[in-house]
């Protein structure tokens, strides 16, 4: 069995996918690299076949009809044989030195019989034109270099959400929890990292900058204009996440608090995008989203609405919307999320 399965979802990725694959190949025979060609119309499949022929014991390509990022991840997971599972988008990459460190640590943990359900690393915003790269680490939030549980977590800053970029899940856990990402929908990475959390019993945080998250293409899903156009998909993902768990059944208070924090972020992102779009239709959608949350889980609604971000999303009138816009621009400059 391979140690780590790396799935690279590809849609018309011929221009940049080689860099992602080459950095993963530095992990050697411990790696299983699955390239999922999601109905590409360029040379993506040709490039994938080339790598498969050159590295038959490491690389596989699986081609499918276009189903979107989520379906590509589903296909990757269905074909994964590695003990651990990581998604690397085709325009991103990993740091080779950090990958070697992660592989060595996973081997040590497995040898000790203490391999965790979730292995967490740092990620770096590789934003075009940025003089300084923003590193998201988990110092002060998670114990470092030790096996721990949710009850050992500390305080998470607003920018310290565990994202797909930072998460390496045990493959069997993902399969056993029955995760299935929706087709033809963006922003499914939030479901991927959120839904399995209650199934995780043990964690490990390694303070290395493994994942390099590229931001700079005009057609990227995190481009602000693109996000506003696709806000209905953001809303859909938020609702799926709300419905995925009854948080009152989560035994760990710290995990429950963290999951509420994550849902708060999702509600805020959807609300901000709708406010920035500014049409009467979008403002109605914002109210409908908050009404949906209230109708689905009144206690969760009160928790999220009462926090400072939740309150700010519901300030009345043009002045309230202006405050939201200013706050959004400040947060974007600080945390560099798009």
Structure summary:
It contains 13 helices and 10 strands. It has helices at residues 17-25, 44-54, 68-79, 96-111, 171-176, 189-194, 224-229, 231-244, 253-277, 280-296, 298-306, 308-312, 317-335; strands at 4-10, 31-38, 59-64, 84-87, 93-94, 118-127, 134-136, 147-148, 167-170, 203-215. With 338 residues, the chain is an alpha/beta fold.
Characterise the protein shown here.
- It is a single chain.
- Helix 8 runs parallel beside helix 10, helix 9 packs across helix 11 (298-306) and helix 10 (280-296) packs across helix 11 (298-306).
- The mean pLDDT is 91.
- It is built from 13 helices and 10 strands.
- It starts with a strand and ends with a helix.
- It is α/β, with parallel strands linked by helices.
- The protein is 46% helix and 17% strand.
- Strands 1, 2, 3, 4, 5, 6, 7, 8, 9 and 10 form a 10-stranded mixed β-sheet that branches.
Q: Mean pLDDT, rounded to whole units?
A: 91
The helix count comes to 13
Outline the low-pLDDT stretches.
Answer: none
Main sheet specs: 10 strands, mixed
The ordered H/E elements are: EHEHEHEEHEEEEHHEHHHHHHH
Residues in β-strands, percent: 15-25%
Question: Approximately how much helix is present in the residues?
Answer: 40-55%
Distance N terminus to C terminus? Answer: 38 Å
Radius of gyration: 20 Å
Strand segment tally: 10
The rough form would be described as globular
């Amino acid at each position: 069995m391979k140690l780590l399965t790396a799935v690279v979802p590809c849609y018309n990725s011929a221009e940049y996918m080689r860099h992602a694959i080459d950095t993963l190949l530095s992990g050697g025979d411990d790696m299983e690299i699955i390239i999922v060609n999601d109905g590409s119309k360029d040379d993506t499949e040709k490039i994938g076949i080339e790598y498969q022929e050159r590295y038959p014991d490491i690389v596989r390509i699986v081609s499918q009809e276009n189903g979107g990022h989520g379906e590509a991840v589903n296909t990757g997971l269905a074909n994964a044989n590695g003990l651990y599972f990581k998604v690397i988008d085709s325009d991103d990459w990993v740091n080779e030195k950090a990958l070697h460190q992660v592989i060595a640590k996973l081997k040590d943990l497995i040898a000790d019989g203490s391999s965790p359900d979730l292995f967490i690393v740092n990620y770096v915003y590789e934003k075009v034109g940025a003089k300084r790269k923003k590193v998201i680490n988990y110092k002060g939030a998670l114990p470092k270099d030790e096996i721990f549980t949710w009850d050992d977590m500390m305080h998470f800053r607003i920018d310290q959400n565990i994202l797909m970029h930072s998460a390496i899940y045990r493959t069997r856990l993902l399969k056993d929890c029955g995760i299935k990402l929706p087709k033809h929908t963006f922003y499914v990475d939030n479901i991927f990292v959120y839904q399995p959390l209650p199934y995780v019993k043990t964690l490990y945080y390694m303070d290395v900058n493994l994942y390099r998250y590229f931001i700079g293409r005009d057609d990227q899903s995190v481009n602000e204009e693109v996000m506003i156009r696709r806000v209905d998909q953001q809303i859909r993902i938020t609702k799926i996440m709300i419905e995925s768990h009854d948080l009152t059944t989560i035994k760990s208070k710290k995990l429950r608090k963290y999951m509420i924090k994550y849902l708060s972020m999702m509600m805020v992102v959807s609300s901000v995008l709708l406010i920035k779009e500014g049409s009467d239709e979008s403002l109605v959608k914002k109210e409908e989203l908050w009404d949906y949350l209230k109708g689905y889980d009144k206690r969760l609604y009160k928790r999220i609405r009462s926090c400072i971000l939740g309150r700010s999303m519901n300030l009345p009138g043009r002045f309230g919307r202006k405050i939201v816009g200013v706050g959004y621009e400040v947060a974007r400059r600080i945390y560099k999320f798009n």
